[in-house]
Predict the 3D structure of the following.
Amino acid sequence: MRSTVGWAVHEPGSPLTPWPFTRRDLRDDDIAVQIHYCGVCGSDLHAVRHAGRRDTPLVAGHEMTGTVTAIGPAVTGLKPGDPVAIGNVVDSCGNCTACAQKRENWCFGFPTLTYGGRDRIDHTLTQGGFSGEYVARERFVHALPAGLDPAAAAPLLCAGVTVYAPLRRWAAGPGKTVGVVGIGGLGHLGLKYAHAMGAHVVALTTSPGKADEARKLGAAEAIVTTDQAAMAATKWRFDLILDTVGVPHRLDPYLQALKLDGTLVTVGAPPQDWQIDPSSLRYGEKRLTGSGGDGTRMVRDMLAFSASHNITADIELLPATEINTALDRLERNDVRYRFVLDMTQ
């Protein structure tokens, strides 16, 4: 077994503390990765503070970049010393329709999550990237393209692909008008990607003070959604709207802003049941859909696109010893726009 140390929660809601534990010995197609950087996601905050009773100790973290340190005998695509990245899925059934399309995050047998999941062979609890080392199957370890800053690239493995995938799937690009609702950890990357894809990008925000910042991130325009006159003027305007907001809100204003056959994609995770006026969906034959992360094919496409367009997250880098400070500030929404931990400190 391979010894490492992670920052673990031992009781739900308690501070994370250093915890020595072991990773598995390498299987034939396994890769061992020394973790240099790990992003702090809202789902990490939920897992360690608000998920209630669950298996503990638990090491969270699923946005990792680092360096290969060892490989199993069947590994062919990576070698020790290579820079790599790991996201929120580390295994899947490999046989279902979703897995055949390399959309393993939708595995019909449910994917093995980077932490809090169960290994498909030995059934042990998976432990995440707030640690010194990770061991995963080669299929789920991604080469990190040259030129991407490894710290700022870490959040791309969750936040990045979460917004990139629906923009790609619903054909954001030249001639399309794309709205991005919310300018936070997800939304700021949505603005960057939609702009790089060639769309006319409009930021939709409740914060007037974020308008100038949205333009720097790639928006051609910014609309304050609490301005009723400005929102009324958006009717029939957007081909695609990407909703990244994670707090309760109504969807009707955004459905009404879509063009004929337009699409509203929700990628935030607000704690509510959606309530909409059915006419806002029917009138214009509009689509309401959702997305969350993606599989290995899209992750690698996203990383290549990010490298070619020099896209990374806007981050605040903290030493791993300040992990509880990062969680406290994330809970207060005191971050522009993602925390990343230096796991070597």
